[in-house]
Amino acid sequence: MITVYGSFPSRSLRVIWALEELGLEYHMRPVDLRKRMEDAEFMAINPAGFLPAMQDGDVAMVDSIAIIEYLIARYADASTSEAPLAPAPHDPAFPVYQQFLHLGEAGLAGTIQLVVVSRNFAPEAERRNWGARWALEQFSRQLGWVTRQLARTPYLAGEAFTAADISVSYARTFARRAAGLTLGEAEQACMARTTGRDAYSRALDMCKDTKAWLAAAPG
What we know:
CATH class of the largest domain: Mainly Alpha
Strand order of the largest sheet: 2-1-3-4
Helix content: 55-70%
Oligomer: single chain
C-alpha cells in the first residue's frame, strides 16, 4: 500500500491528485508540520523532515515531483486512468512535458515560496526585502513562459492533460492564495480546466485542510 505523509496545505496535494488521476489505492497519513520532528514514524523514513514523503514497500521518497515521476513510471500499467499522465519518451510532446513538469516546482513554486515566507513570517520591515522582490520578478518571468505555451495549446504538454498541469496548477494556486498574485486570463482558463477534473475534486476531499484553506481565500 502506498502511504503519503503530508501536511496540508502543502505540495502533498500534487501527489494525492496524481494518485487519484492514476486510480491507485493509497493511504494518506497526516503530519503536523509544527511537530513533525517529534513524529517518530515519519522521521524514520524522512530524517530531514521534508513534506510530502511517500512510502511504497521498501521505497521511501520525498519531493512531490520526484514522487509523481516514480508513480507514473512504476504504476502506469496498473493505472485505471483512460489517459496517461505523461507522454511516452518518443512522443514529440515529451520534452515540453518534462520542461513544464519541473518548471512547476523549480521555477514557480520554489521561487514564490521565498515571497510567501517573507510576506507572512518576516518582521514587518523585512517583508519586501531584496530577495523577496527578486524572487517575485523571477516567478513572473517564468509564468510568462507558461502563458505563451497556453496561447498555443490548452494544456502545457499539448492537447492532453498531464502531470505537468498538476505541477504548474499547484504553483499557480499557491501563488494566488499565499502571495496574493492575480492570474491572467490564460492562466485562469487553464486552472478552470485542470481543477474542474473529478480527480482534483477527490484529492481536495482527501486534503480537507487544503480545501478549507482555499475556500477561505478572498474572492
